[in-house]
Design goal:
This protein is mainly alpha-helical. The protein has one domain. The radius of gyration is 23 Å and the shape is rod-shaped. The relative contact order is 0.07.
């Protein structure tokens, strides 16, 4: 469900940004320019997300248990 929430928020922000840019610019703006304007925040957000998941996974990983001497034989 978390991924659906992120997708809905991203789509909402995309539409909001396109409406704001359409109001602020005197002539019509293309979808390509909107994508170029919104690409950096999305890329930074993706990088932060994967970095957070990477460090969370490293915190959860534990070293393998050491076998006692009597279990080695």
């Amino acid at each position: 469900m978390k991924h659906v929430d992120v997708a809905v928020i991203a789509a909402t922000l995309w539409l909001l940004a396109s409406m704001v840019l359409d109001i602020l610019t005197p002539k019509s703006i293309t979808a390509l320019v909107i994508a170029a304007a919104l690409a950096p925040p999305f890329l930074i957000g993706i990088g932060i997300h994967f970095a957070r998941e990477y460090f969370r996974a490293r915190r959860r990983s534990y070293p393998p248990p050491q076998l006692d001497e009597h279990f080695k034989n």
